[in-house]
Design a protein that fits this description.
- The chain has one domain: Vaccinia Virus protein VP39 (Rossmann fold), CATH 3.40.50.150.
- By secondary structure, it is of the alpha/beta class.
- A 7-stranded mixed sheet has the order 3-2-1-4-5-7-6, sandwiched between helices.
- Helices cover 51% and strands 15% of the residues.
- The termini are far apart.
- The chain binds S-adenosylmethionine (SAM).
- The site of S-adenosylmethionine (SAM) has 19 residues, from helix 1.
- S-adenosylmethionine (SAM) binds next to helix 1.
């Protein structure tokens, strides 16, 4: 079965790390349960982690080996799931009526948002949406508020796909969430998506993660790129924070909120006495059309 291994490993890493209560207690039990079921559902070469990571010894070995190659990668996953869930809660309070998850992979956001009675659209490649849909049905996450769209955004338009869906309402203020998504795209499809979001409704907003690779050491930059390439994927976008912000400004967006890896380090890791580091150069940003 063809799947995105970067997406699958995010689920595995999150599941393994949050088995430790020091990290697990920062997440709702329903989120922990989602990833537990998800890792069990993954193909055999990944689902063996479901049982092996319950052993503290194997968890330690797993963490040590991951940290040796790219220190901070594990905690960036915990932080991004923590802060993105927090930002989604905030957006729900602010009255966003619809959510679109770009490159939803094996993440919990569609289940989380639809369980709150808000419409959510998960978009990803057909080979990711099919197993995800199957999982959602078999694990009891089906909902009238949850919708799926199969798309390769390099070849088709997000705007056309959404407008072709009976459930999507362009009049509703929508938050587009791109967690670990734009890093894999080149400039042109990314620009098309930024334009689509604004054209669908000028009240729409974008919540995205961003890696400024220039803030990593040369060695870790190479490890980062190689790691992604090893699972058959590639990073393409020009990964420099200032250039990304400028590009979005040129396309009519304003950066309205940003959580930097420095803030995550101070506010989340240090405060909770979590000894593992977080990768430099990692940001979560929110943009609004102006
Ligand atoms: C790093 S994973 C992140 C998954 C999930 N958002 C998370 O954070 O757990 C990137 C996801 O983007 C999807 N993706 C990458 N390129 C894409 C494209 N051209 N069209 C649609 N989806 C794409 C991949 O299939 C994968 O599921």
């Amino acid at each position: 079965m063809k799947i995105s291994h970067t997406a699958a490993y995010i689920a595995v890493k999150f599941y393994g790390l949050t088995l430790d209560d020091k990290l697990g207690r920062h997440f709702a039990p329903s989120i922990l349960e989602f990833y537990e079921k998800m890792v069990d559902f993954l193909p055999k070469h990944l689902s063996w982690y479901h049982d092996s990571l319950t052993s503290p010894f194997w968890r330690k070995v797993f963490i040590l080996s991951e940290e040796m190659l790219l220190p901070g990668d594990l905690m960036h996953i915990i932080c991004r799931k923590h802060y993105i869930t927090q930002k989604i809660d905030l957006a729900l309070e602010e009255g966003f009526e619809q959510f679109v998850i770009l490159g939803s992979g094996f993440d919990h956001l569609g289940a989380y948002i639809s369980q709150k009675g808000t419409h959510c659209f998960e978009l990803d490649h057909d080979y990711m949406i099919r197993p995800k849909k199957h999982f959602m049905e078999s694990a009891g996450y089906e909902s009238i508020h949850l919708h799926f769209g199969e798309i390769d955004v390099r070849e088709a338009s997000v705007k056309s796909l959404l407008l072709g869906s009976e459930e999507f309402d362009r009049k509703k203020k929508t938050l587009f969430v791109a967690e670990g998504f734009f890093d894999y795209l080149s400039l042109s499809p990314s620009e098309n998506i930024f334009n689509d979001i604004r054209e669908l409704n000028s009240s729409n907003e974008l919540l995205t993660t961003f890696f400024s690779l220039d803030e990593l050491s040369l060695f870790h930059r190479v490890v980062f790129r190689t790691g992604v390439r090893m699972v058959g994927e590639a990073l393409k976008f020009k990964l420099v924070r200032e250039e990304f912000v400028e590009l979005l400004e040129e396309l009519g967006y304003k950066l309205t909120d940003e959580i930097s890896y420095k803030l995550m380090r101070e506010e989340f890791l240090k405060k909770n006495e979590i000894k593992l580091p977080i990768l430099s150069g990692f940001y979560i940003q929110r943009y609004k059309p102006v």
